[in-house]
Design goal:
single chain; mainly beta; 18-stranded antiparallel barrel; three-stranded mixed sheet; 1 helix; 54% strand
Protein backbone atom coordinates (compact mmCIF):
# COMPACT_ATOMS: atom_id res chain seq x y z
CA UNK A 1 0.00 0.00 0.00
CA UNK A 2 1.35 3.41 -1.00
CA UNK A 3 1.50 5.93 1.86
CA UNK A 4 0.84 9.53 0.85
CA UNK A 5 2.66 11.95 3.15
CA UNK A 6 0.93 15.17 2.13
CA UNK A 7 -2.63 15.76 3.23
CA UNK A 8 -4.97 17.03 0.46
CA UNK A 9 -5.44 20.39 2.15
CA UNK A 10 -1.70 20.94 2.22
CA UNK A 11 -1.42 20.10 -1.48
CA UNK A 12 -4.21 22.51 -2.39
CA UNK A 13 -2.68 25.28 -0.28
CA UNK A 14 0.75 24.81 -1.86
CA UNK A 15 -0.75 24.65 -5.34
CA UNK A 16 -2.58 27.89 -4.64
CA UNK A 17 0.77 29.58 -3.88
CA UNK A 18 2.19 28.67 -7.27
CA UNK A 19 -0.94 28.79 -9.42
CA UNK A 20 -2.91 31.84 -8.25
CA UNK A 21 -1.92 34.11 -11.09
CA UNK A 22 1.80 33.57 -10.49
CA UNK A 23 2.57 31.29 -13.45
CA UNK A 24 2.37 33.10 -16.77
CA UNK A 25 0.13 31.64 -19.47
CA UNK A 26 3.11 32.09 -21.79
CA UNK A 27 4.78 29.09 -20.17
CA UNK A 28 3.85 26.21 -22.45
CA UNK A 29 6.76 23.83 -21.93
CA UNK A 30 9.67 23.22 -19.65
CA UNK A 31 12.41 20.64 -19.18
CA UNK A 32 12.03 17.22 -17.62
CA UNK A 33 14.94 15.48 -15.92
CA UNK A 34 15.34 13.27 -12.89
CA UNK A 35 16.42 9.85 -11.74
CA UNK A 36 15.03 6.39 -11.12
CA UNK A 37 16.58 3.22 -9.85
CA UNK A 38 16.67 0.20 -7.60
CA UNK A 39 18.15 -0.40 -4.15
CA UNK A 40 19.23 -3.69 -2.61
CA UNK A 41 19.91 -4.02 1.14
CA UNK A 42 21.61 -7.01 2.74
CA UNK A 43 21.20 -7.36 6.51
CA UNK A 44 23.88 -9.47 8.17
CA UNK A 45 21.83 -10.72 11.16
CA UNK A 46 18.28 -11.64 12.10
CA UNK A 47 16.21 -8.77 13.60
CA UNK A 48 15.75 -8.32 17.35
CA UNK A 49 11.94 -8.26 17.01
CA UNK A 50 10.37 -11.41 15.54
CA UNK A 51 7.73 -9.23 13.83
CA UNK A 52 10.37 -7.55 11.68
CA UNK A 53 11.00 -8.87 8.19
CA UNK A 54 13.60 -11.61 8.44
CA UNK A 55 14.59 -11.66 4.78
CA UNK A 56 18.30 -10.91 4.59
CA UNK A 57 17.90 -9.27 1.16
CA UNK A 58 15.43 -6.41 0.76
CA UNK A 59 14.63 -4.84 -2.62
CA UNK A 60 13.12 -1.42 -3.33
CA UNK A 61 12.65 0.86 -6.34
CA UNK A 62 12.32 4.63 -6.56
CA UNK A 63 11.63 7.46 -9.00
CA UNK A 64 12.29 11.20 -8.63
CA UNK A 65 11.37 13.10 -11.82
CA UNK A 66 11.91 16.86 -12.03
CA UNK A 67 10.12 19.47 -14.12
CA UNK A 68 11.59 22.97 -14.46
CA UNK A 69 10.41 26.00 -16.45
CA UNK A 70 11.43 29.67 -16.72
CA UNK A 71 9.68 32.76 -18.09
CA UNK A 72 9.68 36.55 -17.77
CA UNK A 73 13.28 36.69 -19.05
CA UNK A 74 14.34 34.23 -16.37
CA UNK A 75 12.97 36.28 -13.46
CA UNK A 76 10.28 33.68 -12.74
CA UNK A 77 10.64 29.92 -12.55
CA UNK A 78 8.66 26.86 -11.52
CA UNK A 79 9.96 23.51 -10.24
CA UNK A 80 8.09 20.28 -9.52
CA UNK A 81 9.88 17.28 -7.94
CA UNK A 82 7.75 14.33 -6.80
CA UNK A 83 9.29 11.28 -5.15
CA UNK A 84 8.01 7.70 -5.03
CA UNK A 85 9.43 4.54 -3.46
CA UNK A 86 8.22 0.94 -3.36
CA UNK A 87 9.77 -1.33 -0.74
CA UNK A 88 9.54 -5.10 -0.61
CA UNK A 89 9.68 -5.51 3.17
CA UNK A 90 8.18 -2.45 4.87
CA UNK A 91 4.83 -0.98 3.83
CA UNK A 92 5.70 2.27 5.64
CA UNK A 93 8.75 2.68 3.42
CA UNK A 94 6.51 2.39 0.38
CA UNK A 95 5.54 6.04 0.15
CA UNK A 96 5.14 9.10 -2.06
CA UNK A 97 6.02 12.72 -1.39
CA UNK A 98 6.32 16.09 -3.12
CA UNK A 99 9.88 17.24 -2.54
CA UNK A 100 9.34 20.49 -4.43
CA UNK A 101 6.44 22.41 -5.98
CA UNK A 102 7.79 25.93 -6.05
CA UNK A 103 7.35 29.24 -7.82
CA UNK A 104 10.31 31.63 -7.63
CA UNK A 105 10.49 35.30 -8.55
CA UNK A 106 14.00 36.77 -8.49
CA UNK A 107 14.76 40.50 -8.41
CA UNK A 108 18.07 42.30 -8.01
CA UNK A 109 18.00 42.54 -4.22
CA UNK A 110 15.19 40.19 -3.21
CA UNK A 111 13.70 36.78 -4.05
CA UNK A 112 10.26 35.36 -3.29
CA UNK A 113 9.50 31.63 -3.22
CA UNK A 114 6.15 30.01 -2.54
CA UNK A 115 5.00 26.41 -2.49
CA UNK A 116 6.69 23.24 -1.29
CA UNK A 117 10.49 23.01 -1.15
CA UNK A 118 13.55 21.82 0.73
CA UNK A 119 15.93 24.14 2.59
CA UNK A 120 19.31 23.06 3.94
CA UNK A 121 21.29 24.75 6.71
CA UNK A 122 24.53 23.42 8.13
CA UNK A 123 28.25 22.84 7.64
CA UNK A 124 29.31 19.81 9.72
CA UNK A 125 29.60 16.23 8.47
CA UNK A 126 28.28 14.02 11.28
CA UNK A 127 24.97 15.77 12.02
CA UNK A 128 23.16 19.02 11.19
CA UNK A 129 21.81 20.54 14.37
CA UNK A 130 20.73 23.83 12.80
CA UNK A 131 18.87 22.23 9.85
CA UNK A 132 15.31 22.48 11.17
CA UNK A 133 12.95 23.73 8.45
CA UNK A 134 12.26 20.38 6.75
CA UNK A 135 11.10 17.18 8.38
CA UNK A 136 13.35 14.10 8.25
CA UNK A 137 12.24 11.29 5.95
CA UNK A 138 13.52 8.60 8.29
CA UNK A 139 12.31 5.63 6.25
CA UNK A 140 14.64 6.72 3.44
CA UNK A 141 17.85 6.68 5.46
CA UNK A 142 18.79 6.62 9.12
CA UNK A 143 21.46 9.31 8.62
CA UNK A 144 18.78 12.05 8.61
CA UNK A 145 19.97 13.53 5.31
CA UNK A 146 16.74 12.81 3.40
CA UNK A 147 13.97 15.37 3.95
CA UNK A 148 10.28 15.78 3.20
CA UNK A 149 9.05 18.78 1.23
CA UNK A 150 7.79 21.64 3.42
CA UNK A 151 5.02 24.11 2.45
CA UNK A 152 6.40 27.62 2.83
CA UNK A 153 6.55 31.23 1.76
CA UNK A 154 10.16 32.43 1.72
CA UNK A 155 11.26 36.02 1.20
CA UNK A 156 15.03 36.56 0.79
CA UNK A 157 16.40 40.08 1.20
CA UNK A 158 19.83 40.33 -0.45
CA UNK A 159 22.05 43.09 0.91
CA UNK A 160 25.76 43.92 0.98
CA UNK A 161 25.87 42.99 4.67
CA UNK A 162 24.30 39.59 4.10
CA UNK A 163 21.14 37.79 3.07
CA UNK A 164 18.11 37.64 5.36
CA UNK A 165 15.64 34.79 4.72
CA UNK A 166 12.15 35.07 6.22
CA UNK A 167 10.04 31.89 6.33
CA UNK A 168 6.33 31.37 6.94
CA UNK A 169 5.69 27.62 7.31
CA UNK A 170 2.04 26.51 7.12
CA UNK A 171 1.32 22.80 7.29
CA UNK A 172 3.45 20.63 9.60
CA UNK A 173 4.97 17.38 8.29
CA UNK A 174 5.11 14.39 10.61
CA UNK A 175 8.32 12.35 10.66
CA UNK A 176 8.22 9.03 8.82
CA UNK A 177 9.02 5.88 10.77
CA UNK A 178 9.58 2.25 9.76
CA UNK A 179 6.57 0.01 10.25
CA UNK A 180 6.24 -3.00 12.53
CA UNK A 181 7.93 -5.20 9.91
CA UNK A 182 10.59 -2.63 9.05
CA UNK A 183 14.24 -2.70 10.03
CA UNK A 184 16.30 0.14 11.52
CA UNK A 185 13.62 1.13 14.03
CA UNK A 186 13.31 1.52 17.83
CA UNK A 187 12.74 -1.64 19.91
CA UNK A 188 9.02 -0.79 19.95
CA UNK A 189 7.17 0.16 16.77
CA UNK A 190 6.06 3.80 16.44
CA UNK A 191 2.26 4.20 16.26
CA UNK A 192 1.68 7.40 14.27
CA UNK A 193 -2.12 6.99 14.55
CA UNK A 194 -1.84 8.22 18.17
CA UNK A 195 0.43 11.19 17.42
CA UNK A 196 0.20 14.00 19.98
CA UNK A 197 0.83 17.74 19.61
CA UNK A 198 1.52 20.43 22.17
CA UNK A 199 -0.45 22.87 19.99
CA UNK A 200 -4.23 22.65 19.80
CA UNK A 201 -3.86 23.45 16.09
CA UNK A 202 -1.85 20.21 15.68
CA UNK A 203 -0.40 19.98 12.14
CA UNK A 204 -2.17 23.24 11.16
CA UNK A 205 0.04 25.32 13.46
CA UNK A 206 1.88 28.00 11.47
CA UNK A 207 5.63 28.05 12.17
CA UNK A 208 8.12 30.78 11.36
CA UNK A 209 11.87 31.05 10.89
CA UNK A 210 14.49 33.65 10.02
CA UNK A 211 18.12 33.26 8.97
CA UNK A 212 20.95 35.67 8.24
CA UNK A 213 24.01 34.43 6.39
CA UNK A 214 27.08 36.23 5.11
CA UNK A 215 30.73 35.71 4.31
CA UNK A 216 33.42 37.90 5.84
CA UNK A 217 36.83 37.14 4.41
CA UNK A 218 37.47 33.44 5.04
CA UNK A 219 34.42 33.13 7.31
CA UNK A 220 30.97 31.87 6.29
CA UNK A 221 28.46 32.63 9.04
CA UNK A 222 24.80 31.74 9.50
CA UNK A 223 22.54 32.81 12.37
CA UNK A 224 19.00 31.45 12.55
CA UNK A 225 15.92 31.28 14.74
CA UNK A 226 12.95 28.92 14.47
CA UNK A 227 9.66 29.13 16.35
CA UNK A 228 7.03 26.43 15.98
CA UNK A 229 6.45 22.69 16.10
CA UNK A 230 9.60 20.66 16.66
CA UNK A 231 10.57 18.42 13.76
CA UNK A 232 12.10 16.01 16.30
CA UNK A 233 9.34 14.25 18.29
CA UNK A 234 9.63 12.77 21.73
CA UNK A 235 8.69 9.06 21.66
CA UNK A 236 6.43 8.17 24.58
CA UNK A 237 5.61 4.59 25.66
CA UNK A 238 1.96 3.55 25.33
CA UNK A 239 -0.32 0.77 24.06
CA UNK A 240 -1.99 0.40 20.69
CA UNK A 241 -5.58 -0.70 20.03
CA UNK A 242 -4.53 -4.35 20.40
CA UNK A 243 -2.92 -3.75 23.78
CA UNK A 244 0.61 -4.10 22.43
CA UNK A 245 3.35 -1.75 23.69
CA UNK A 246 4.23 0.98 21.19
CA UNK A 247 5.86 4.39 21.05
CA UNK A 248 3.78 7.51 20.38
CA UNK A 249 5.34 10.62 18.77
CA UNK A 250 4.70 13.89 20.60
CA UNK A 251 5.57 17.14 18.83
CA UNK A 252 6.34 20.03 21.19
CA UNK A 253 6.31 23.76 20.49
CA UNK A 254 9.88 25.03 20.58
CA UNK A 255 12.09 28.02 19.96
CA UNK A 256 15.54 27.21 18.59
CA UNK A 257 18.39 29.60 17.92
CA UNK A 258 21.21 28.26 15.77
CA UNK A 259 24.69 29.28 14.67
CA UNK A 260 26.71 27.71 11.85
CA UNK A 261 30.22 28.84 11.03
CA UNK A 262 32.86 27.68 8.55
CA UNK A 263 36.39 29.04 8.31
CA UNK A 264 38.45 28.25 5.21
CA UNK A 265 42.22 28.54 5.61
CA UNK A 266 44.18 26.90 2.82
CA UNK A 267 43.68 23.13 3.09
CA UNK A 268 41.81 23.51 6.40
CA UNK A 269 38.05 23.76 6.91
CA UNK A 270 37.00 24.55 10.48
CA UNK A 271 33.31 23.96 11.17
CA UNK A 272 30.82 24.58 13.97
CA UNK A 273 27.08 24.15 14.46
CA UNK A 274 25.49 25.12 17.79
CA UNK A 275 21.90 25.46 19.00
CA UNK A 276 19.92 26.53 22.04
CA UNK A 277 16.43 25.01 22.24
CA UNK A 278 13.56 25.95 24.58
CA UNK A 279 10.24 24.16 24.94
CA UNK A 280 11.11 20.47 24.62
CA UNK A 281 11.50 19.74 28.30
CA UNK A 282 14.20 21.76 30.06
CA UNK A 283 16.06 24.12 27.74
CA UNK A 284 19.36 22.76 26.48
CA UNK A 285 22.33 23.46 24.25
CA UNK A 286 24.01 21.18 21.72
CA UNK A 287 26.96 21.62 19.40
CA UNK A 288 29.00 19.82 16.78
CA UNK A 289 32.38 21.13 15.72
CA UNK A 290 35.61 20.06 14.12
CA UNK A 291 37.75 20.28 11.02
CA UNK A 292 38.53 18.78 7.63
CA UNK A 293 42.06 18.86 6.27
CA UNK A 294 42.58 18.01 2.59
CA UNK A 295 45.72 16.35 1.25
CA UNK A 296 45.70 17.28 -2.43
CA UNK A 297 47.25 15.16 -5.16
CA UNK A 298 48.19 12.27 -2.88
CA UNK A 299 51.30 10.38 -4.09
CA UNK A 300 51.44 12.57 -7.21
CA UNK A 301 48.00 11.40 -8.36
CA UNK A 302 44.74 13.27 -8.91
CA UNK A 303 43.34 11.83 -5.66
CA UNK A 304 42.47 14.16 -2.79
CA UNK A 305 42.12 12.78 0.76
CA UNK A 306 40.21 14.64 3.45
CA UNK A 307 40.87 13.98 7.14
CA UNK A 308 37.69 14.70 9.13
CA UNK A 309 37.34 14.99 12.90
CA UNK A 310 34.32 16.31 14.86
CA UNK A 311 33.10 16.39 18.45
CA UNK A 312 29.37 15.96 19.13
CA UNK A 313 27.92 17.37 22.37
CA UNK A 314 24.42 17.45 23.85
CA UNK A 315 23.83 19.08 27.25
CA UNK A 316 21.01 16.62 28.08
CA UNK A 317 23.43 13.70 28.23
CA UNK A 318 21.93 10.24 28.56
CA UNK A 319 18.59 11.80 29.60
CA UNK A 320 18.07 13.07 26.06
CA UNK A 321 16.93 11.10 22.99
CA UNK A 322 20.03 11.85 20.95
CA UNK A 323 22.69 9.10 20.82
CA UNK A 324 25.34 11.79 20.33
CA UNK A 325 25.87 13.47 23.72
CA UNK A 326 29.64 13.09 24.11
CA UNK A 327 30.94 11.51 20.92
CA UNK A 328 33.88 11.78 18.54
CA UNK A 329 33.57 11.34 14.78
CA UNK A 330 36.61 10.47 12.68
CA UNK A 331 36.49 10.09 8.91
CA UNK A 332 38.45 9.77 5.68
CA UNK A 333 37.11 11.27 2.45
CA UNK A 334 38.60 10.18 -0.89
CA UNK A 335 37.94 12.07 -4.13
CA UNK A 336 39.62 10.41 -7.10
CA UNK A 337 38.82 13.38 -9.37
CA UNK A 338 38.43 10.99 -12.28
CA UNK A 339 36.03 11.05 -15.22
CA UNK A 340 33.59 8.87 -13.26
CA UNK A 341 33.52 11.28 -10.27
CA UNK A 342 34.44 8.48 -7.86
CA UNK A 343 34.28 9.37 -4.16
CA UNK A 344 34.39 7.49 -0.87
CA UNK A 345 33.70 8.45 2.76
CA UNK A 346 34.64 6.17 5.68
CA UNK A 347 33.54 7.34 9.12
CA UNK A 348 33.32 6.16 12.72
CA UNK A 349 31.43 7.71 15.65
CA UNK A 350 32.46 6.59 19.15
CA UNK A 351 30.67 7.41 22.41
CA UNK A 352 33.35 8.53 24.86
CA UNK A 353 31.44 7.20 27.87
CA UNK A 354 29.83 3.92 26.80
CA UNK A 355 32.30 3.15 23.98
CA UNK A 356 29.30 2.36 21.77
CA UNK A 357 30.35 2.96 18.18
CA UNK A 358 28.95 3.03 14.68
CA UNK A 359 30.80 2.78 11.39
CA UNK A 360 29.75 3.83 7.92
CA UNK A 361 30.99 3.67 4.35
CA UNK A 362 29.51 5.67 1.46
CA UNK A 363 30.86 5.42 -2.10
CA UNK A 364 29.65 6.80 -5.45
CA UNK A 365 30.76 6.29 -9.04
CA UNK A 366 29.24 7.27 -12.37
CA UNK A 367 28.84 4.52 -14.97
CA UNK A 368 28.84 6.10 -18.39
CA UNK A 369 26.80 9.24 -19.01
CA UNK A 370 23.50 8.29 -17.35
CA UNK A 371 24.13 5.68 -14.66
CA UNK A 372 25.41 5.96 -11.11
CA UNK A 373 26.32 3.26 -8.58
CA UNK A 374 26.17 4.09 -4.87
CA UNK A 375 27.36 1.74 -2.12
CA UNK A 376 26.61 2.14 1.56
CA UNK A 377 27.41 0.06 4.64
CA UNK A 378 26.65 0.62 8.33
CA UNK A 379 27.80 -1.29 11.40
CA UNK A 380 26.41 -0.67 14.90
CA UNK A 381 28.86 -1.94 17.53
CA UNK A 382 26.89 -1.90 20.79
CA UNK A 383 28.41 -1.94 24.23
CA UNK A 384 26.29 0.59 26.11
CA UNK A 385 22.69 1.58 26.67
CA UNK A 386 22.17 4.52 24.32
CA UNK A 387 19.62 4.97 21.52
CA UNK A 388 21.69 2.95 19.03
CA UNK A 389 21.34 -0.23 21.09
CA UNK A 390 18.12 -1.13 19.26
CA UNK A 391 20.07 -1.27 15.98
CA UNK A 392 22.77 -3.70 17.11
CA UNK A 393 21.38 -6.45 14.82
CA UNK A 394 20.76 -4.11 11.87
CA UNK A 395 24.20 -3.96 10.25
CA UNK A 396 23.69 -3.77 6.51
CA UNK A 397 25.30 -3.36 3.10
CA UNK A 398 23.37 -1.49 0.42
CA UNK A 399 23.82 -1.02 -3.32
CA UNK A 400 21.83 1.54 -5.32
CA UNK A 401 21.84 1.76 -9.12
CA UNK A 402 20.34 4.96 -10.54
CA UNK A 403 19.55 6.11 -14.07
CA UNK A 404 19.69 9.87 -14.69
CA UNK A 405 17.86 11.44 -17.64
Amino acid sequence: MMTCLLRPGMIFAAAAFVCAGLISPAVSAGDWSGRMGTELRLFTAAPLDARQANNALSLSAFAEPEYFARWNNGADSFAFVPFLRWDQSDEKRTHADIRELTWLHASQDWELRAGIRKVFWGVTESQHLVDIVNQTDLVENIDGEEKLGQPMINLALIRDWGTVDLFLLPGFRERTFPGVEGRLRPPLAVDISQTEYASADQERHIDAAVRWDHFIGDWDIGLSHFSGTSREPRLLPSLNASGEPVLIPRYDLIDQTGLDVQLTRGAWLWKLEAIRRVGQGPSYAAATGGFEYTLSGLFNTATDVGLVAEYLYDERGKAGPSPFQNDIMLGLRFALNDVQSTDLLIAAIVDRQSQTSSYSLEANRRLGDNWKLALEARVFAHSGGDALAALRNDDYIQAELSFYY
